[in-house]
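Can anyone check this?
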Amino acid sequence: SFRQLFQDLARYVQDADVRWEYCVRAKRGQTDTSLPGCFSKDQVYLDGIVRILRHRQTIDFPLLTSLGKVSYEDVDHLRPHGVLDNTRVPHFMQDLARYRQQLEHIMATNRLDEAELGR
């Protein structure tokens, strides 16, 4: 429920206003916020970040971002077809080692480990 989500998030987010915004976003579009569930796009994004974290050591991030909005699973298939001249890598990936550290920080903050990610 909205209330339970709000209370559960207190463990991670102390600011009640920020927690409220998170809950509103998660529950938007639902006619009954007391029922389990969340906005479907957020579920897709969550699935995506879990996959990214699961394979963070082997993903070719510069190529992935250069190819545009594609699944990391398709990178090897698309590699020979990509036109990569003059593509820009996002600013947060300019330092790939730092980006990988940020992924590790995301895992630590969310108390995720390899077992949780399903390796």
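Reply from J.R.: I decoded it. Residues 39-119 form one domain.
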